[in-house]
C-alpha cells in the first residue's frame, strides 16, 4: 500500500513540475521523459455527445464543425467570395532543363483592376509524358529563381524574408539563382512523370507582422469582402495555393484531377490549411510542419503555441495566442487538422534532428487521424510505435522519419513521388 501511495505521489509531482515549467514560460522541451501526460480531443466525438460512426456523418456534420473550430481559433475565416483570376503566360520554353521539360512562367492577376497584385507561377512539364500530367504544387521560400539555375526564370522583385546567398537588403540579386536546387530535385520529379508548379510565398503577403498592410489581406479586402484581422498570413498563403489550382485547371497539359500539394515547415502549415479548405487538392504532403501544423500542441515538446505566437504573431489569428499559457483549452489539435484531409491521401514526414517540429508528435497525430480514414474504408497507420529511420509506414495515411535535419531532401521527394504514383494509380 505504501509503495502504491509513493508511486502515485511521484507521478503527481512529475505532472505538477512539468505543468509548472510551462506556466513559468520555459522556452521548450526536447526531453521525452519530461513530456507530461495529456489527453487529445476525440476527433470523432460530436458536439451533441454522439460518436461519428460513418463517413456520411463525418462529411456532413463533424467535418464542418471541426473546420469551423479552426476558422474561429487558429486560421480565421477562409474567403468565401468567388474570384475570377486572370492568367498571362509570360514565357514558354519547350526545351528547358536540356530538353527534359517544358517551362512556363505564368502570372496570375488576383485583383480585377490592380495589375500590381499578382503571383508568378513557375511550371515545369515533363516532355516525356504525352498525356496530361499529374502535378505537385508547392511554395518556395526565396523566389522561383532559386529552385533552378536557368537564366530565363524571372528574378523576383519582392521583399525577401530569408537573407541567404544573393539577397541584399531583403531583395534578390542574380547571385541568388539556383541557391535552393537541393530542395526541389527537378530532374527526379520530372523523370517520374510529374509536373511541378511553384510560386514564391511572399507574392501573397510578406512574412512579417506588418506584411498584411501590403499583402493581399489589404489589397483584396474589398474584393474578397473580408477584413485583414478576420484571417491571417497562413490563410493568405493557403488562399494563394488555390489560385494556382485555378490556373492548373485551365492548362491542357495538366491532369486537374491529380493535383498533389506539398509544403515544408511554415509552408507545411499553410499547405494543410489549403488542403482542408480546397478539395481540388487530391493528395496532401506535410513535410515537417510542426507546431500549428501536423504536430500535437498538447505534447510539451519542441516548439509550442506560446513560442510560435510570440515570434510569428501574424501567422495565426489573435485568438490562437490566448491558448499559449494553457493549451488544454485549445479545442483543436494537430490530428484534427490532418483529419480534414480525409479521405484524400495524406503523407506526413519528419526528420530525426528536427526536434523543434516534434517528430513523435507528428507521427502520433497522423496515426490518430487514421481513425477518420477508417470511416471511408481507408487504411492509415496502424502501428503504435515510431518507425525506424527511413522506413515509411501506413497506406492512405503514410509517415516517415528520415535521418538528417529540417529540410526537403531527395529521399523525401522519392517517397512522395512513389506515394503519389500509388495513390493516383500511375505506373512510374
UniProtKB/TrEMBL annotation:
SUPFAM superfamilies: alpha/beta-Hydrolases. Residues 1-23 form the signal peptide. Keywords: Hydrolase, Serine esterase, Signal. It comes from the Bacteria. It holds the Pfam family GCE_fung. Residues 232-377 form the 4-O-methyl-glucuronoyl methylesterase-like domain. This is 4-O-methyl-glucuronoyl methylesterase-like domain-containing protein. The lineage of its organism: Bacteria, Pseudomonadati, Bacteroidota, Chitinophagia, Chitinophagales.
Amino acid at each position: 500500500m505504501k509503495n502504491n501511495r509513493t508511486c502515485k505521489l511521484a507521478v503527481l509531482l512529475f505532472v505538477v513540475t512539468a505543468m509548472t515549467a510551462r506556466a513559468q514560460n520555459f522556452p521548450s522541451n526536447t526531453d521525452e521523459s519530461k513530456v507530461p501526460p495529456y489527453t487529445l480531443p476525440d476527433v470523432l466525438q460530436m458536439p451533441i455527445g454522439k460518436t461519428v460512426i460513418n463517413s456520411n456523418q463525418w462529411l456532413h456534420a463533424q467535418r464542418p464543425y471541426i473546420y469551423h473550430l479552426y476558422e474561429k481559433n487558429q486560421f480565421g475565416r477562409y474567403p468565401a467570395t468567388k474570384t475570377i483570376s486572370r492568367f498571362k503566360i509570360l514565357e514558354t520554353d519547350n526545351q528547358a532543363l536540356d530538353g527534359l521539360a517544358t517551362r512556363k512562367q505564368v502570372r496570375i492577376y488576383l485583383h480585377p483592376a490592380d495589375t500590381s497584385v499578382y503571383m508568378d507561377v513557375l511550371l515545369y512539364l515533363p516532355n516525356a509524358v504525352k498525356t496530361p500530367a499529374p502535378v505537385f504544387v508547392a511554395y518556395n521560400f526565396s523566389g522561383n529563381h532559386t529552385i533552378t539555375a536557368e537564366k530565363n526564370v524571372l528574378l523576383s522583385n519582392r521583399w525577401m524574408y530569408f537573407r541567404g546567398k544573393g539577397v541584399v537588403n531583403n531583395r534578390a540579386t542574380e547571385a541568388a539563382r539556383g541557391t535552393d536546387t537541393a530542395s526541389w530535385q527537378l530532374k527526379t520529379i520530372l523523370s517520374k512523370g510529374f509536373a511541378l508548379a511553384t510560386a514564391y510565398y511572399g507574392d501573397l503577403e510578406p512574412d512579417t507582422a506588418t506584411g498584411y498592410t501590403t499583402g493581399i489581406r489589404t489589397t483584396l479586402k474589398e474584393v474578397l469582402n473580408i477584413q485583414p484581422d478576420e484571417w491571417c498570413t497562413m490563410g493568405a498563403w493557403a488562399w494563394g495555393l488555390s489560385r494556382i489550382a485555378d490556373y492548373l485547371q485551365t492548362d491542357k497539359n495538366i491532369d486537374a484531377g491529380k493535383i498533389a500539394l506539398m509544403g515544408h515547415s511554415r509552408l507545411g502549415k499553410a499547405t494543410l490549411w489549403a488542403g482542408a479548405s480546397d478539395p481540388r487538392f487530391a493528395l496532401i504532403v506535410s513535410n515537417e510542419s510542426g507546431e500549428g501544423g501536423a504536430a500535437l500542441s498538447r505534447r510539451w515538446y519542441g516548439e509550442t503555441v506560446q513560442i510560435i505566437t510570440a515570434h510569428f504573431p501574424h501567422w495565426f489569428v489573435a485568438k490562437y495566442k490566448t491558448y499559449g499559457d494553457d493549451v488544454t483549452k485549445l479545442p483543436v489539435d494537430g490530428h484534427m487538422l490532418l483529419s480534414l484531409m480525409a479521405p484524400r491521401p495524406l503523407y506526413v514526414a519528419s526528420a530525426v534532428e528536427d526536434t523543434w517540429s516534434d517528430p513523435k508528435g507528428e507521427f502520433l497525430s497522423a496515426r490518430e487521424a487514421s481513425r477518420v480514414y477508417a470511416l471511408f474504408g481507408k487504411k492509415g497507420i496502424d502501428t503504435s510505435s515510431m518507425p525506424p529511420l527511413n522506413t515509411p509506414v501506413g497506406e492512405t495515411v503514410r509517415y516517415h522519419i528520415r535521418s538528417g535535419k529540417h529540410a526537403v531532401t531527395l529521399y523525401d521527394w522519392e517517397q512522395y513521388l512513389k506515394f503519389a504514383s500509388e495513390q493516383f494509380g500511375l505506373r512510374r
